[in-house]
Amino acid sequence: MQVLIDLFSLKDLIPHGYCLAWSPLLLWLTIISDTLITLSYYLMSLIMFYFIFQRKNLLYSKLIQLIALFIIACGTTHLLSLITIWIPVYGVETLTKVITAIISVITTASMFYSVPKLLALPTTEQLEQEILKRTVAEKTALESRDRLQQILDSIPVHIYVKDSSLNYQYINKAVQTYFDLDKDTIIGRSAEQLFEDESMRTKLRESDQLVLETGLPIEYEIFEPKKSLHF
Question: 10-19 contacts: CB < 8 A, separation 24 or more?
Answer without folding.
Answer: 10/87, 10/88, 10/89, 13/88, 13/90, 14/88, 15/84, 15/85, 15/86, 15/87, 15/88, 16/81, 16/84, 16/85, 16/88, 17/85, 17/86
